[in-house]
Specification:
heterodimer, A: 428 residues, alpha/beta, nine-stranded mixed β-sheet, six-stranded parallel β-sheet, 13 helices, B: 177 residues, mainly alpha, 10 helices, elongated
Amino acid sequence: MPEGRTVSRRAFVGKAAGVMALPTIIPSCVLARPGRQGANDRIVTANIGVGGMGQHHVAADAAALCDVDDNHLANAARRVTQGTPFLTKDYRRILDRRDIDAVIVATPDHWHAMVTVHACQAGKHVMSEKPTCKTLGEGRAMVDAARRHRRVVQIHAQGRSNPVAHKACEFVRNGNLGRVNRVEIWHPVNHTTDSWGAPQPVPSTLDWNMWLGPARWAEYHPQRCHFFFRWHMDYGGGFIRDRGNHALSIVSWLMNHDNYRGLVTCEATGTPMLGGFYDVPATMEVTWRFQNPDWTLTWSQPGRPNPRFPGEWGATYHGDRDSLVVVGGDGHCDTEEKAKQYEPPSGGVRVFRSPGHRENWLDCIRSGERPVMDVEIGYRVITLCILGNIAYTLGRRVTYDCARERFVGDEVADRFIHEPYRSPWRLA
Amino acid sequence: MPNAMRPIVEPTVQSLLADIRNGDPAVRARAVEQAPLVGARSIGALGEVYGAGDPAAAKAAAEALRRVAHHAARPGAAVERRAAVREIASLIGSRQPHPLRVDAAYLLGFIGGADAVPALAAQLADPALRDHARLALERITDRSADGALTRAQDTAAADFRPAIAQSIAVRRARARR
């Protein structure tokens, strides 16, 4: 059963020691040289956040599970069939354990950066769910932590490991559309509620204070918590910071845009959510403009699916010779036959093909290479999504310097870069 | 003629308030969009809607308040920004509805300078609002926020001092970068 919040350090250490005694859990650091796993070593993983998407990341041999909701923990524990996982509501107890090499983070979004930075500091490799982070400052802190502590940090925007998306990427990168000057993303609107969010009793299974963590205090309401947090700026930020991370990841990949460090202007309009207590916009139109090469990216919510190749969400790439539609970009991705059948010519552009997102992450832990959705790529992609929300909130166009990581001539916009946290939560 | 199709005219504080309280969601939405045109003089009136018992009107007022504040704080509008800070700071006192106080503190963190610091610093002693005030002070770039936090270290309740110390440390670390 999960530990209570008042568990003593001595009791914790004793329990942890018991788990460490299990013969199947041998940390890879015992088998290989420090800081690098051997090619055949088992990488011992733990999961932090095991509700929602998090439950699907739990491997049969997970060594430890963490969640602030007892129900999530109990459900996730049933997925572990090899050994008995250590269960806790406090992720720091997992980070304290030397037998764990790597953690998979699938907490609510406002926790991603905090857990990732602390995990790197504790010497753990990380695969963190999308969105990469909530604020621009958090993204920078995640990259810095990964580099300083030499950890492999993969963002789980798994479209970069999707074979169809890979086909589309090679098709576009080899110039089959000519010069692409416009990409249009369409997506359904954000969810709505009739509730005004009157405070409700916290379920006995949930540690609400820990769920909020670094976020400013708010009273409990079920539509502020599991899954529904997506529709609050303080936690999820709407679809643009959720699926937007997937959609813009694919765009950045196909456009070979990951290393862009120029200026980007961002304009956003939308209709406010006035019918309930969610505070993300009901609808949203965002335009980003890049320079050298000049091209424009748009996010339309709702947007009209391309009738040539419809899907719930996706993007149309407009080049001066042709166009291409790519739908989805998370676990699901599809595109037109001309791209799916494409093979680059001899001497053409070849893009690294990931064997699978988790596999790529584990391979990179063993090799020390950067994964296909390295944390810096994740940070650069989510930067655009966050800019959309900032421009909408401010009601004006903003210009962001991707090299300096500051807004241009807008001191108020700069104040969105860092989010003050509740005590005792700090990234440093 | 449906309310939402009325011709657009320059809104006044009175017309803005009437539209924010209107039962037609389309009218409310239009009022929210037009609120920046009325500017800082609408802030006090919007605050009154928070405690009037209509959650839909209060939500519209909150959205309008946010738009007014950020529009007033746009680059090059120093006079409007100061007026907005003055009006929002007047909404942070303990006689106001708690959600309004929280929103006021949050907005001051974004648009406030030295002119917002005294109002926020005064709330560091109020258990209901102190952490929201601290978060806002941590965000304000003016150095007077450092002074307010440092002084509060000696006067704040003992259980709140670690939070204040955290804000001071974060600001110092940021200043070193």
